[in-house]
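Reviewers asked in the last cycle whether our approach scales beyond single polypeptides. To address this, we selected a multi-component target totalling 833 residues and predicted its structure end to end. The input consisted of the following lines:
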Amino acid sequence: MTVLSLRVDLRLDDFALNVAEDLDLQNITALFGPSGAGKTTLLRIIAGLEVRATGRVMLDDVIWQDRERKQFVPTHSRSVGYVFQDGRLFSHLSVEKNLLFSAQRASNSDALTLENVAAALDLGALLQRDPASLSGGEQQRVAIGRALLRNPALMLMDEPLSALDGKRKAEIIPYIERLPHEFGIPVLYVTHNVDEVTRLATRIVLLANGKVAANGDAIEVLERIDLMPLAGYLQPGAVLEARATEHRHGMTTLVAAGQSLYVPGTAIALGSNTRLRIQARDVALATQQPQGLSIRNILQARILSIDIVEEIFAEVLLDVGGQHLRARVTREAVDDLQLANGQEVYALIKSVAIDRGLLA
Amino acid sequence: MRLLQTSLLILTGLTVAAPSSAESVAVAVAANFRAPMQTLVEHFETETGYDVKLISGSTGGLYAQIVNGAPYDLFIAADTRRPALLATAGLGLEQTQATIAIGQLVLWSVDADLIAAQELGALRDQSIRFLAIANPDLAPYGAAARQALMAMNLWEQWVSRIVYGENIAQAYAMAATGNAELALIARSQVSADAGAYLLIPPEFHEPIRQDAILLERGAANAAAVALLQFLSTPNAAAVILDFGYLVSN
Amino acid sequence: MEIDLGPIWISLKLASVTVIVLLLLGTPLAWWLAFTRSRSRAVIEALVALPLVLPPTVLGFYLLILLGPAGPIGRFWVEITGTTLTFSFSGLVIASVIYSFPFAVQPLQTAFEGIGRSPLEAAATLGASPLDTFVRVASPLALRGYVSAIVLGFAHTLGEFGVVLMVGGNIPGVTKVVSIAIYEQVETLSYSQAHYLSAGLLTFSFVVLLSVYVFNRRIPITRL
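The resulting structure, written as structure tokens, was:
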């Protein structure tokens, strides 16, 4: 596992960034937060593109910059791959030459040959094309391939999907998911989109106003209500991990913690795992098994804690076979139903948020 | 000279009888003669009350303009050839062509010691890198400079070391900035406070005559005629001598 | 009738050498001006543009002083080479470079600014050193700027008159450029010789410029 050690400081006219964190990089780590939080800036600092930043950046035991020791390793000597939000393919080179540009300057790798990467990202048909003639999604795929061919120790991605529509996003996400597994390169992924985070992140670093507000396991961070205001417009909720087991009559059966959920119209491959984000306000509670309801998704759960968050509402944290779920109910309901920690209840889920775009 | 005066008298007579002519005259003068001309014009204007406009330029440039219809009344050139050509072309009155001044060729250096030490012998000094002259094809002083060097059998020695200005003003600048150690230029250009000069014996070159001619357009202009006449008077001669020229008597 | 084509060769040689020197000196400066955040940038830009506003004969006069054996640059040259800078072809090159400087720097600066930092940052993240980036990414993208600089620098130097007049000394076969030769022929009323020289100058210049523009057409238009 790679550790990115950050002790950085950057002061601009109207913005200050101050980060002192060690990031455990495995698989995909999301750098998440509202617009203007400093995510892109931090990514650029890690890449060495912000020379005015002070402090220290280290990847494992390699020092990339250290103000005290007056060291600064320039970008081209850092083992990073960078995928920009706007792709930035070289317009004077064909797709193939763009890829070669990277491959020729990279350290040798048996796995990361142009052929392998082109195959992995389905770039074969695009190789002789002029970058300007490609669609947004195609450009991003090439950009990812180009950064990959660098054979970097760390892959940095700056909102690579934000300029794309839902369909294109769905096309590319699988390629990004595979990067750590297929090529062994950890990814630091900047986004303000919670669906992308839900889908991709193993760990989340939450950045707000230039400071790190949370740094931990993705699912845990996503369900922390205290972080919701910082994360921008984000409804409280939780994330369940489930596996697709069946497609029938246009509905997909997903099994989470031994219980079944039914989601309409997805094309998830059977047997594959996915994550479901369920907003607290979509979850209702019943103390007895309901009868005659239109809601199909009913899970057995046990109350872990009840938090009063607003005057009339309460957030109930539930355990579902080792995973968590959140329900928002009125305080009145809590009193009426005499809800208490440890109580077995039924969680009724009105809609299960699975971003159709992310699943295609 | 007598011919000139006679012609002028006739012309004056003619103009008196003509309808009222302009009180102003436009004079095209070669650049090197501009300074003395300005002083002469001041005297003339005070004496006669006429108004004079001076236009200066290269002799060749002014000549081309006149040929193409420039509105000048009087032309004072740096040579005799251009006025003669105008006369032949009918653009100038032949009988009015006269030598106003005779230029003197001098050897000059911004380094006074160089002249003081070697005098004309400086022209035999092989260690001197450059000699500046005006272009012999364009400027009479340049032609005179070449003639003088040839007369002294020094042209071959100097050919590879000569630099050319388009006119004597540029030749002067090249020497004044120290780029050329020596220059063959006009006596009228040098002053007492910069460098030192030496007169080149006039027998080494053709006389550098600066001729004036009354132009077709100025023939009926009383002021123009008067000015031309004025240039031959002793008062004018004094000014011209003052500026380093000679006058023909 | 004798037509001396020598001045044409001198002019072409002068323009070519000047363009090469302009590119060598002007490109790094244009790059710096395009990307620096320094406060002295405006000052340098104004200095670069100065030759545009000075009349050529004025510029020529002051170069005569600067490059003369008593001047700061000329003196240095004499010490190093033992020959004078004025009245030599090298002196003409230096004078022409100064005179045509803004014509090379400004198009290059504009072209580099048009590229912006994005492609340069991308190249750095792909392991390209600054020099590598300059050669393989920035220059191809800035090709139009190079073409302008070459064309303008070449043409401007060919047409030079006032500056060469003073600094060169009009030595036939060495510093007598065609613009002066044509002027002299007009002055001495040798009009047909003037016509021939002018025609020769125009023809050669046209061929050179045409080649540059044809070459430029072959390069794909960059979308910037």
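Residues 6-35 of chain C form the longest helix (30 residues). We regard this as preliminary and will revisit it once experimental data from Aim 1 are available.
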